[in-house]
Amino acid sequence: MPQQSLCPSYVLNVTEQKENIPERKSGIKCNNMWLKNGELVLAVARYIILNPSATSKSMSAEFSATVQAVNRAIKKIREKLDGGQYVLSLEESEIESLCQAMESRDELLRGEKAQIRKNSRKKWNDIKAIMREHVVKKMFCQERGVAEIAKMTGLKKDDIKRMIEGITGQCIDDIAKELFSEGKGIPEIVSRLDIDKKDVGQLIGLLTGRCIGDIAREMYRKDKSIFVISAELCTPPKDIKKMLPRVIRPPKSFSMAVSEIRRISTIKPGTLKGSKKIRRKRSSISTTKLAHWNNSHYVMDENGKFVFDQSSVTGVKPADLPWKYPSPKMSIEIRGTATGISAKDYIFEHRR
Q: Residue 35 domain-assigned?
């Protein structure tokens, strides 16, 4: 009696599975038992011919296979077509259709990737715009100017102004009015909002309701200089000068007469015209030595005045001696001392 196997026949099971190959929704028959024999590759190829835009996920659901297995099958199909090989069990017409389907599939994939990159780039730009608006809002609230924000962030000034308008919900003119009502000066408003110099006059008229020329003339009447007015109104000095009233200059002859009157009025009484005060270096000689020097170099003439004796000069005159006559009293005392006669007797003899 032959022995009977306890396990079911493998050949019988395989035969039954071959006869009962399940048919998919797409009409393609595929048995997962024969994946190693290229059944899945063939099924994927025929599915791509029918639907070139099919995804790996949809094909894995169709054939009850994993996404990785479907991707490997697509890779094998691409390698065979690129190498000039034929996919088994496919006719020539099917191979041509498969090549066209793979090309259209690649185009669709490239379009999808481009769209994905475009969407991601758009999202990133939106994120950067939100971050920029947040930074601009924070810096503007810290009382930083448009030029300073542009220098720190690298953005354009016009873009920053548009961001500020979008953040505050006000235009630049309304923001300037609000800052002016808070007590901010015109130079601070101009520098903070980066107002163009050509538009400063219009801004001042908008804030104060007056013409810039009237404000400049009023400040000039209050004895403010042109440069101070220029700094407070953010206007070049040459433009401020044009706004002020013109000073009528007198003719040249009149101006010369006025200058002559001023010069004459400064002359002190008792001084000659054109005389200058000569300043001499102070003498370093003592009073006694000066008296001796004067006594030996000055002589009294017939009229009783001291005259310098040129014959008494033996050398160069000292540079530190002053040019002045000797005191009569000092001269008398020195002469009386030198002759042995008292001062009174000397005067008496001299008068006699």
A: yes
